[in-house]
Write a structure and sequence with these properties.
Blueprint: H1 2-23, H2 35-45, H3 47-114, H4 130-153, H5 158-187, H6 195-251
Helix pairs in contact: 1-2, 1-3, 3-4, 3-6, 4-5, 5-6
Length: about 250
């Protein structure tokens, strides 16, 4: 429809231009006696304006295919972006689930051991078994290594990585605490360990036993902050997916 209108407009432009000599008196002071003369003279006076309108129409007709092609390209880019964002969301959720499962299991195991009952707040350092502490030290180290590999991959947002780094720091502190608790039992009797070293280790063990509940609380708090960040980031990504879906449905 638009190309046809442009063609009609162009033909009319040519006819009016050629009719100037046929219907308009040569002397501009002579008034027009016919409607054709009025039309042609009016066109002659405003032919620049008519020419500009014709140029705009021609530009629109020429640019329309390119505009449609750009719209198709934008739609394809949105589809590609949606797939990439969706894959990233799945990765964020998978890594967050691994971290939550491992750290929460660690915390629950510790709390069940140092407190006889869930509502019990009385902690007795003398009940901590050094062999159990040794195993928990390695569990902390294993989880830390995995979380550091997540950080190295740089597949999460800066906010998630910052929150995870706090969890890693708390895990390292808790692991060091378990190391101090288990070190005297593991190294006592070693010929390379002097009596002064054993005394320092005993002192470090006593300090670590006192600090253990606080280290556990620090890790729990870091995980709480991490969970909030994960929730916020997932909501942001889902809003972005919703926006792309709305745009694609609008284009369709």
């Amino acid at each position: 429809m638009v190309p046809l209108a442009g063609l009609v407009f162009l033909l009319g432009f040519i006819l009016l231009a050629s009719a100037n000599a046929m219907f308009v008196p040569l002397n501009p002071n002579i008034p027009c006696a016919t409607v054709s003369c009025v039309l042609v003279r009016t066109f002659s006076e405003y032919q620049t304006l008519f020419g500009a309108g014709l140029a705009v129409l021609a530009a629109f007709v020429a640019a329309r295919p390119a505009w449609l092609q750009l719209q198709k390209m934008k739609l394809q880019q949105d589809i590609t972006a949606r797939d990439a964002i969706l894959q990233r969301l799945k990765g964020i959720e998978a890594r967050a689930k691994y971290q939550d499962d491992k750290v929460q299991s660690l915390l629950q195991g510790i709390l069940r051991t140092i407190y006889l009952y869930p509502e019990d707040e009385n902690y007795d350092p003398s009940t901590v078994d050094v062999h159990w502490a040794f195993n928990k030290m390695h569990e902390c180290q294993d989880i830390t290594l995995k979380l550091k590999s997540f950080q190295a991959s740089m597949r999460d947002t800066h906010s998630i990585e910052e929150a995870r780094q706090n969890v890693i720091h708390s895990l390292e502190q808790l692991g060091a605490c378990f190391c101090d608790i288990s070190a005297p039992a593991a190294l006592t009797g070693d010929p390379e360990v002097s009596s002064e070293d054993e005394e320092r280790m005993r002192y470090a063990e006593a300090v670590a036993l006192e600090q253990l509940p606080q280290k556990v609380d620090d890790l729990a708090n870091a995980m709480g902050d991490f969970s909030l960040i994960i929730l916020e980031e997932k909501q942001f990504v889902r809003r972005r997916l919703r926006q792309i879906d709305d745009d694609m449905l609008g284009d369709a």
